[in-house]
Design brief:
Elements lengths: L12 E2 L15 H10 L17 E2 L10 H13 L14 E4 L18 H9 L3 E5 L25 E5 L31 E4 L3 E5 L3 E5 L2 H18 L5 H11 L19 H8 L3 E10 L10 E4 L5 E3 L5 E7 L1 E8 L6 E7 L4 E3 L2 E3 L4 E9 L15 E4 L7 E2 L5 E7 L2 E9 L3 E9 L3 E6 L1 E2 L2 E2 L12 E4 L4 E3 L9 E3 L7 E10 L4 E10 L5 E7 L2 E6 L6 E7 L3 E10 L9 E8 L10 E4 L2 E8 L4 E9 L5 E7 L4 E4 L2 E4 L4 E8 L7 E11 L6 E11 L13 E6 L7 E7 L3 E8 L5 E10 L2 E7 L12 E9 L2 E9 L2
Parallel strand pairs: 1-2, 3-4, 4-5, 5-6, 9-15, 9-16, 17-23, 37-44
Antiparallel strand pairs: 7-8, 9-12, 10-11, 10-13, 13-14, 17-20, 18-19, 18-21, 21-22, 22-24, 25-35, 26-29, 27-28, 28-35, 29-34, 30-33, 30-35, 31-32, 31-34, 36-38, 38-42, 39-41, 39-43, 40-42, 43-44, 45-46, 46-49, 47-48, 47-50, 50-51
Helix pairs in contact: 1-4, 2-3, 4-6, 5-6
Length: about 800
């Protein structure tokens, strides 16, 4: 039943090895044995799970170590995505591809969670092809699943199969690779591996030449699952890849520990239950995710099933589609910059239900500021031109600063963001900040003389990676701060190198902290200066310091993790953090205020006004702060404590102008700290004392949201604003998740100063809970956001 018996051989057999064959050729029996388990049928002996299926094949893994192996695998995945090269035809596209292969650290140049084929795998499955992966035969130790089977970026990709005995009680084979997947394979909640198990010990199947033999391994287990997937597609051709995987896991017979575990996964394959599940009681839901205001499709939106596993990401046309059991479900749609949307839908057996979803733009604010040179001292202005600024964990692109060092991002409010800035060859910083409204802040680059990897990457210094794998920056194990560098995962023999060249000026002491986890006498972290070995370490240790004296001038420092001999220990690696180069200052705290000026605008006599003040620590040591008002009219809440490296403290500054004359006033907020350079920062406070609503009767009109008075408040507050001309005004209150709480104003209003009262209730008149809320003013193409604090 090779499909090439009735179709062109070129779309049924891919000879990437250049053997010149036009018919599938098996050089070692492995492929014939696995194919027999999937679809084999003899006149007197059925050995295959899906004996009426057809098959096609490739020979990319039928080779030893080869520099072409990586690209050969890519070529084969592309072939399976569209064998005849015509995207308009479907009969050539396979329903399932069995991958009885994988790589691990024992192969030179490959490493745990190897991701080099992930994009091609996703493209193949997007074409409707289920990819099934044998877990590997490196058990019984933990975290031994091969790549790409160890991929865990979702609950479905890297669908891996472990091996059991062929008779009751189907005990897991000792050699079957175990989970969990490694820390770089995906989120911790997805790392349980394998997904499922099937018989793989002494499996009877075909071999070249017309005979039969018993083979063992997860290579023999995976084909059972691939055959069942073929049966499921035969029973229901429209079932999608995710649903196939979900049903295989849901119908598996639980073995081992109760529930999913790292030996048996969800349990033993149940072919009858899996096929029965797709023969009835299934329907489809499809639709488009659109922008609620414009109606345009939203690209990259995630649609998921509440309390379910299914997820989909919309493409350029904003569409999604699910296969689901009949009955009611709730769909959730989300995308960066939008509020989450939901819709209830009832799935009908055998039918397609249309359900579009509309995403409302989230309430946003402006995060802006200036990046400063490494020699700058807060709050002095010394902008850094050419610095790259990005917001970690968002799809927003990086901004390159101009001569003024400025950057600006528009972001949803109510979250903490990590803003990263770096200037090649000079330094970098990764600072966490809260965004409750428009925020102006400064970023001071850490100097070249210290590297804590706090940019989240290697951009702060001219680092060079080489060897069998690259070092990478990670946050799971650090000496200080949020990040440290970790050696790349390598096989034996092999090595991974991290190198930097630095001008050490007049010379002096150099220090860094390292940690190793390795087999003693086999694997080492080696440190060299200008090619000369300074020291090396092996075994297992916590974080330890190392220091040496360096002569004046330019020097090249290199850290190499080297594996000399293959052993079963799979977690061999090393870490590096907190490097101080000669001539630099010791790590110290650095106090930075945001903003440097608090402008309260107009405050009516007898009222109060409150604004947030963010105190950041842009240094490498904890910052102890005390924030106080510089005058009797200024009080500060939440202004004392310890701020960790690259963290922040949020203080609430309140102005009470009682007893002050009408007009403009200026005072200060004092930020005292253990910052050795700036032990006291002065934050300017500006406000006007006004009689009535308008600060000055003949003042020019402008667009402004002055804020709420009182704030914090209980039970009500007045929100004041100014618009430059008559027009439609929207003033709304949102919660910290960006959900609409109350429409206060939505009508045409005259130009000038105005106000609206909020009584702490939502649209239905229900009292809302204590907490932080946001007032958003919109007029024309302008908007502004201020925070409100309700205290019950």
């Amino acid at each position: 039943r090779w499909r090439g018996n009735h179709a062109p051989w070129q779309e049924c057999w891919l000879d990437v090895l250049g053997t010149g064959t036009q018919f599938p050729t098996d050089l070692n029996a492995h492929g014939t044995h696995t194919t027999g388990t999937m679809i084999g049928l003899a006149s007197d002996d059925t050995i295959g799970v899906a004996p009426a299926a057809e098959w096609i094949a490739v020979n990319c893994i039928d080779q030893g170590a080869s520099p072409l192996f990586d690209s050969d695998v890519l070529a084969c995945l592309q072939f399976f995505t569209d064998p005849d090269g015509d995207p308009g035809t479907l009969d050539d596209v396979p329903d399932v591809v069995q991958n009885s292969w994988g790589v691990h650290e024992g192969f030179v140049g490959y490493f745990d969670c190897d991701s080099r084929w992930w994009t091609a795998i996703d493209a193949c499955e997007a074409a409707g092809v289920m990819l099934c992966w044998s877990a590997g035969n490196e058990g019984p130790g933990p975290q031994t699943v091969r790549s790409p089977a160890d991929r865990a970026t979702t609950l479905y990709n890297g669908f891996s199969v472990g091996s059991t005995m062929t008779t009751l009680p189907f005990t897991i084979a000792a050699s079957s690779s175990r989970g969990p997947a490694g820390p770089d394979c995906g989120p911790v909640e997805n790392r349980t591996k394998p997904e499922i198990v099937a018989p793989g010990v002494n499996v009877y199947s075909s071999v070249p030449g017309g005979g039969y033999q018993y083979f063992s391994g997860t290579s023999m287990a995976g084909p059972h699952v691939a055959g069942v997937a073929a049966l499921m597609r035969s029973a229901n051709p429209d079932i999608d890849v995710i649903t196939i995987k979900q049903i295989l896991m849901a119908t598996a017979v639980d073995l081992g520990q109760t529930g999913e575990d790292n030996s048996y996964g969800h349990g033993l394959l149940d072919a009858f239950a899996a096929v029965q599940a797709v023969m009835g009681g299934l329907g489809w839901v499809e639709g488009v995710v659109r922008h609620a205001d414009t109606g345009w499709p939203v690209v990259g939106a995630t649609v998921s099933v509440q309390d379910g596993y299914q997820t989909a990401v919309t493409g350029a046309d904003g569409t999604y589609r699910f296969t689901l059991p009949e009955g009611p479900v709730v769909l959730l749609a989300s995308a960066f910059g939008f509020d989450e949307a939901s819709a209830s839908v009832t799935i009908i057996d055998g039918e397609t239900v249309q359900q579009d979803l509309a995403l409302t733009p989230a309430i946003t604010a402006r995060l802006s500021g200036v990046v400063h040179q490494t020699a700058a001292v807060p709050p002095d202005a010394d902008p850094a031109e050419g610095a790259e600024v990005r917001i970690a964990g968002t799809p927003l692109g990086a901004i390159t600063t101009g001569a003024d060092g400025r950057f600006e991002f528009i972001l949803p409010v109510g979250s903490d963001y990590q803003i990263q800035a770096s200037l090649s060859g000079q330094g970098g910083i990764g600072q966490t900040v809260p965004l409750g409204g428009d925020l102006e802040l400064d970023l001071y680059l850490s100097p070249l003389s210290f590297e804590g990897f706090e940019t989240g990457d290697f951009s702060a210094l001219p680092w060079i990676n080489s060897g069998n794998a690259d070092w990478f920056v990670q946050s799971s194990d650090t000496y200080e701060g949020a990040y440290a560098a970790r050696a790349g995962d390598i096989g034996s023999p092999g090595q991974t190198n991290l190198q930097v060249t630095v001008d050490c000026g007049a010379g002096g002491a150099m220090t860094f902290f390292y940690r190793v986890s390795s087999e003693e006498d086999f694997d080492y972290l080696r440190f060299t200066v200008d090619g000369v070995l300074d020291d090396q370490w092996s075994g297992n240790s916590g974080w330890l310091p190392h220091s040496l004296n360096v002569e004046p001038g330019v020097h090249t420092f290199r850290w190499s993790y080297v594996k000399d001999q293959y052993v079963s220990y799979l977690h061999d690696t090393a870490w590096l953090d907190a490097i101080t180069f000669p001539g630099g200052n010791a790590p110290q705290p650095l106090a930075v205020a945001a903003p440097w000026t608090l402008d309260f605008g107009a405050i009516r006599q007898g009222d109060q006004a409150t604004l947030p003040l963010v105190i950041m620590n842009q240094g490498e040591q904890p910052l102890d702060i005390s924030v106080t008002g510089g005058a009797a009219q200024v009080t500060v809440g939440g202004g004392s404590g310890t701020v960790e490296s690259y963290g922040y403290q949020l203080a609430q500054v309140t102005v009470d102008p009682t007893g002050l004359p009408l007009g403009h006033h200026a005072t200060i907020v004092l930020v005292d700290s253990n910052d050795p350079v700036n032990p006291r920062l002065l934050v300017e406070v500006l406000f006007q004392v006004a009689e009535g609503v308008s600060p000055v009767g003949d003042a020019p009109r402008a667009f402004a949201l002055q804020g709420a008075v009182p704030n914090p408040f209980n039970p009500a507050t007045t929100i004041r604003y100014t618009v430059p001309a008559a027009g439609h005004v929207d003033l709304r209150v949102y919660d910290v998740q960006g959900r609409l709480v109350r429409d206060l104003v939505s009508e045409v209003r005259p130009g000038g100063s105005d106000e609206a009262r909020w009584d702490g209730r939502d649209q239905r008149g229900r009292a809302v809970a204590s907490g932080t809320y946001f007032a958003r003013l919109q007029f024309g193409g302008q908007h502004s956001v201020k925070n409100l604090v309700l205290v019950r």
